[in-house]
Amino acid sequence: MKRSSSLCRILALCLLCASAAAGLSGADQEKKQPVSLPKTEMLTIQSKGSDIQYQLHVALPDEAGTPGRTFPAIYLLDSDVHFGFVRSLIGSLHLSGDLEAAILVGIGYGEGSLATWSRNRDRDFLVAANPGPTPGDSGNAARFLALLQKEIIPRIESSFPVRKGDRTLMGMSAGAIFASHVLVTSPDLFRRYVIVSPYLIAGQEKIIDQEIASARGRKDMDARVYTALGNPELEVAGPNWNALFGNLVQRRYPRLALRKDVISGLSHFEMPFSAYLQGLTYVFGGKPVPIQAVAGNYPAMRGRYFFSLGGAAILVTMEKGKLFVHLGPNPVELVPVSRTRFEMAGTPGLEFSFLPGERAQARALILRQMGFDSAAWRMEEGKTP
Description:
- By secondary structure, the chain is α/β, with parallel strands linked by helices.
- The protein has 2 domains: 249 residues, 3-Layer(aba) Sandwich (Rossmann fold); 86 residues, Lipocalin.
- It has 9 helices and 16 strands.
- The strands form 2 sheets. The chain has an 8-stranded mixed sheet, with helices on both faces. The protein has an 8-stranded antiparallel beta barrel with strand order 9-10-11-12-13-14-15-16.
- The chain starts with a helix and ends in a 7-residue tail after the last strand.
- 34% of the residues are buried.
């Protein structure tokens, strides 16, 4: 009898352990379920021109169910890496009132190794083949632009409630090279551009020549553009970045609104997390001031400014509707980047910002070079430092 009772207890204990193991197994299995983001969809598209397959990741705003309502479309390159982050960013900016409800369209390749992802980007985003003995299938930006224009955008605009023609393109690194290529060759395809850390080197400086060629006969560029480099990137990427976007500023296109930023302390791979935020805020936030619309502020900016460090003075003058700075024997024109920010003609990377003061006069001048700022204060007429 005792033996039978002991046997029952053992059997009960075994059943309890088995039940617990089954429960743990189920819990483990649940933990391995893939995570899905609410209000997102994935489409696949097979390129007719190259027979390459792409994944389109689409995030819809809560308001997408409203009958008859349409939304701007934000096209994000490198969706395999940045889609989740940018989706959260767009949602937060919308909640704060800094961004209207928008549809995010991420363009990606799906699962694959890092090496495969890198080769895909080189194939689609670069304008020139990789240098070296084995360039591979790279440098096909023109082909990818045709895919975007003729297949991806029509697919999105026929499937989702997007506002046709109201498009934004976002890209960083190689994606920023491609976005720069689109901006200078087909600027009307997108209304807004966020271009982060484009390294226009190793053949990709071809985009500078593309801009020069496309500017012939062009009288305007209706676009809002934000571009940025990290301060540690300036030595390598800065010269050609300044050359390309400095050229665009000096074209004086009436409807072009362009902002260039140097962000201190961020490495190449850290840049999107700050620059995408600042870029979206700029290109969507109130209508940026067209570069041609700032001449009315010039009288408030002219004058003499004194640097407390170093004891130097800078003279800013106005002549024939243009603003000039005197740093040496000859005055140099200040080319507007925004209503209060200027670059010195012929010296990309040297930026002047005027801070407003009382009586409609600028009270200070901020000189920025290589990410470092120096302040000069306006001197009253007739006084010496």
